[in-house]
Specification:
With 459 residues, this protein is of the alpha/beta class. 34% of the residues lie in helices and 20% in strands. It folds into 2 domains: 269 residues, Ribonuclease Z/Hydroxyacylglutathione hydrolase-like (Metallo-beta-lactamase, Chain A, 4-Layer Sandwich); 183 residues, Rossmann fold, CATH 3.40.50. 48% of the residues are buried. Bound molecules: zinc ion.
């Protein structure tokens, strides 16, 4: 067996692994690169040969794990694309959204290029390519080995990262390997915890996003969230939550409902101002079997968002604009998560200069984004050509991460480490990978490997 990472090697986006065995070739994930040079990197890499792939298996539906899939169809893929049912449902939403964003970006750029007499750009893929991709989707159950290609069987284990997320165990050629996928933290009060995998395997491919640090405990984060929300009620302002549409947005709603039910804060209106988040909410509602025990009971009884007395689902941009006339307190969840675009930017323009507003950051804010500038204490941010004063209160809740911290990654590895497998670290910046490799060496006496893009790992 041979494994080649075609992304997420020394970084956190573009996840993809080509697995070659005696009888078959399959791909685990085929995610989009997000960041610098992504235009040149979002291609089918040399040596991948989509026409000769027997199958693809995805760990979960996030864009950085599925965002290049339509390129396979455009380049001759004939085999199926496997994933858990919820992952496939989320991947469908994410890919349709991605095609839409690419089309509008290209349209925007082309208006300029046309005037400048430059050749026009094309999106990576369009709605049609996405539709063809989705027709290849085939569901896989959890906790059961299924043949996915000649001589290769795969088993999906709960990864606790987003709805439907899985770690994938593969067996072929008398060898076995586990791909962790993205691993979630424990005690997320919605999802099941990551499975404890007790197989004896030859190789573990482990994510290392937070290989160098632990998060604040969830309970502290919840207490902070309650404080922020009740302070906003006193000031009568709007609470703006820039959030990624799938995962974080649903967890915020779930937690807020619990705060209202507890009586700690008087209920106020909540606006879910994101068509993608609204569609994802429906997927969450359809899959109570993937929630932890408490949440599952609440979903089955229909009461999982009880406590939120007024939940407005804003589908159209008119729905979104109408929020401008609403008086606080209220809470608005909108994308994009780092304020680089989307409806949240309009809400910031209307409210960032008001002292009673609260901007609540629940996700990572990359350097150079408006979200990061606000957190770093900028006096003004430029929005649609105007300088808007930052007078709002700014709060950050780091503990809502969808990724396991360093101690949880080590704990996840523990049952597998007993058999002294090879360990390969991916999906992390190099500093995080190096720190996790150190910890694995001292805890389990295993020298973890840190491959580069395209490096062959022979098993
Ligand atoms: Zn992910």
């Amino acid at each position: 067996m041979q494994i080649i990472p075609f992304g997420a090697a020394g970084e956190v986006t573009g996840s993809a692994y080509l697995v070659t065995t005696t009888n078959a070739r399959i791909l685990i994930d085929f995610g989009l690169f997000q960041g610098e040079d992504d235009d040149v990197r979002n291609v089918v890499p040399q040596g991948l040969e989509p026409q000769n792939l027997d199958a693809v298996v995805i760990t979960h539906g996030h864009l950085d794990h599925v965002g290049r899939l339509p390129l396979l169809l455009k380049n001759g893929l004939r085999g199926p694309i496997y994933g858990t049912p919820a992952s496939l449902a989320i991947a469908e939403l994410i890919l349709a959204d991605s095609a839409g964003i690419q089309q509008s970006d290209v349209d925007h750029a082309n208006r300029r290029r046309e005037r400048a007499g430059l050749p026009l750009l094309k999106p990576l893929y369009d709605d049609n390519d996405v539709a063809r991709t989705i027709r290849r989707f085939k569901p896989l159950p959890y906790n059961q080995f299924v043949d996915v290609a000649p001589g290769i069987s795969a088993c999906m284990y709960e990864a606790g990262h987003i709805l439907g997320s899985a770690s994938i165990s593969l067996r072929a050629d008398d060898r076995s390997v586990v791909f962790s996928g993205d691993i979630g933290p424990h005690e997320v009060p919605y999802l099941r915890d990551p499975a404890r995998i007790t197989e004896t395997v030859d190789l573990v491919v482990l994510e290392s996003t937070y290989g160098n640090r632990d998060h604040r405990p969830r309970s502290e984060t919840l207490a902070e969230f309650t404080d922020v929300v009740s302070a906003a009620v006193h000031s009568g302002g709007k609470i703006l939550v820039p959030a990624f549409a799938i995962g974080r947005a649903q967890e915020i709603l779930y937690q807020l409902a619990a705060i209202f039910r507890s009586g700690a804060v008087q209920p106020f209106p909540v606006y879910l101002d994101s068509p993608l988040a609204i569609r994802a909410l429906e997927v969450y509602r359809r899959h109570p079997e993937l929630a932890d025990r408490e949440a599952a009971a609440l979903i089955r009884s229909g009461g999982w968002l009880d406590g939120i007395e007024q939940l407005e689902l804003c589908v159209s941009s008119n729905d979104s604009r109408a929020i401008n006339d609403v008086r606080g307190p209220c809470l608005i969840i909108a994308g994009s998560g780092m304020c680089t675009g989307g409806r949240i930017v309009h809400h910031l323009r209307h409210n960032l200069w008001r002292r009673e507003t609260v901007v609540l950051f629940v996700g990572y804010q990359a350097v150079g984004t408006p979200g990061r500038r606000i957190i770093d204490g900028a006096q003004y941010v430029r929005i649609f050509g105007d300088d808007i004063a930052v007078r709002a209160r700014v709060a950050t809740l780091g503990g809502f991460s969808a990724h396991a911290g360093r101690s949880e990654l080590l704990a996840w590895l523990e049952p597998l480490a007993a058999a002294q497998p090879r360990v390969v670290l991916t999906h992390g910046e190099d500093t995080a990978r190096a720190a996790l490799a150190d910890a694995i060496r001292s805890r389990y006496n295993i020298n973890a490997e840190v491959p580069t893009f395209g490096e062959k790992i022979a098993l």
